Amino acid sequence: MISSRANTATVPELELVLASDPDVIKQVWINNKVHFAPYASDEAWLEKSRIRTNVDLGPGMGHSIWVLVPRGKGNDPTSILSAAHIILRPGLISKITSKATSELPTNKELNAQELKHSNTQHILASQQNGHLTESTHELKEIAVAYVLLVFTPIEHRSRGFANAMLRMVMDKLKHQTDPVVDLSYLFSAIEPTFYANLGWQMMRSRELVLDQLKSHVFPDLPLVDASAAGAKYRINNVTESDLREIVNEDVELLRSEMAKCTLEAPRGQNLHFVTILPHEEAFRTHFEMTRYSNLHIDHINRPITRIGVRLVSIDEHYKGLDAFVIWTYIPSSSRICILRLRYQTVHQLQCLLREAMKEAQEWGFSMVSVWDLNDKDALAATGMFNRDRTSWWLCVAQMEHENFGGSITMVANGAYTWGL
Ligand SMILES: CC(C)(COP(=O)(O)OP(=O)(O)OC[C@H]1O[C@@H](n2cnc3c(N)ncnc32)[C@H](O)[C@@H]1OP(=O)(O)O)[C@@H](O)C(=O)NCCC(=O)NCCS
């Protein structure tokens, strides 16, 4: 389990401990502030960490901190050799088995039908370069481990401690039963081979950027306000008090989409399609942290009044959640970052992005970004440009207990920021 370098180091016996001692937990945060928030005061960073760790994601889920220490030193804050944080989150696997195939409609046909731009379907279609098939689905709730804030104090670096700790953490997760963890993921800010050597597989990680210069693509957009002729929707602001209703409905829609994706891989192959489910409490905690950071770390004293918009049908009898966006504010990189996006048509997407753009302009930011929106029609229509992330990679590891057999073919977040 422990890397040879750690075994031969001056500390022969190491132990992985779930940090519970308040002094150890505090020391972990003080240590990693050097790297993750050097500009913040200790006090502000600790308060932000308190908000972050209090997130309630349901039974068996939530935030924990693991430390590597010399055996027997689990309660000694000065003995931390390396540390990692884990957030267990609810997710969903759809195992799709194809029966027959036929060609996909061409892009032109898709446009003619104004085909629904369901997030999941488009990801499947474009990734598989695919076939339309009859398929069976098994849907399973899973727990997914998000690994973050991996940190070795500077004086202990290059002795194999982070490697040893991550191997032990992975081993723990593999053998955990309540809940069973099927998958782990992280965003690597360093050369991803470091994580690949430990079993994490590198996945595509891209972001779309809409900068101010591109806003010229929007002026001709037909208005969707109720006052406009032929308008089908009006734009409603989304506030934190709307989160419960929107997220719950969004999750229900995701479940049904996951259960009946019709676009498939070549005949005879199984697809394991995984998504992390958006979680109301994750959003809530996120906004609490953002408010705190804006005020106490970035020193921006500006209230957050809306966290997105929703397109509401002007037909009062129709209550469906067709299109919405939830965003967050990142002053340090002068951007609005989209956390969750749902749309059926390109026109709806344009309306949502236009609102995000307006909000960015009001805050004096230079861009709007969204991760992994893999939809070519949408890209063409919005003038967004898609770039591979060069500073962050998504890495995913499947646990070995083979709940579903075979490997995970595809992981998608349906335009949901996993790091939330
Ligand atoms: C990354 C980190 C956790 C590694 O801890 P460690 O205990 O020194 O790691 P190990 O001794 O097990 O492995 C060291 C190897 O990791 C790799 N590595 C470490 N930092 C790296 C970096 N910034 N970029 C690329 N590879 C890196 C190198 O291959 C290194 O080998 P070397 O010592 O021969 O150069 C540590 O450098 C750290 O805390 N960095 C700051 C926080 C951070 O970047 N965390 C990762 C966020 S994704």
Automatic annotation (TrEMBL):
Coiled-coil regions, chain positions: none
LYC1 C-terminal domain segment(s): 232-418
Name used for this protein in its record: LYC1 C-terminal domain-containing protein
